[in-house]
Amino acid sequence: MTIKNSPARPNAAEFAWQVDDVFGRIASRYDQLSDVFSFGIHRLWKRRVAQRIAAENWSTLLDGATGTGDIILRVAQRASTRNRTIIASDISKKMLAIAEQRLREHKELVSLCLLDAENMPSIGSSSIDAYSISLGLKICNRRLAIQEALRVLKPGGRLIILEASNIPWNFLNRAYLVYMSVCMPMLGWLATGGDASAYKYLLQGIRDFPTAEELARELESHGFEEVQFERLSLGIVAIHTARKPSKAELQNTTETP
Ligand SMILES: C[S@@+](CC[C@H](N)C(=O)[O-])C[C@H]1O[C@@H](n2cnc3c(N)ncnc32)[C@H](O)[C@@H]1O
Question: Which atom of ligand 1 is nearest to 116's Cα?
Answer without folding.
Answer: 20
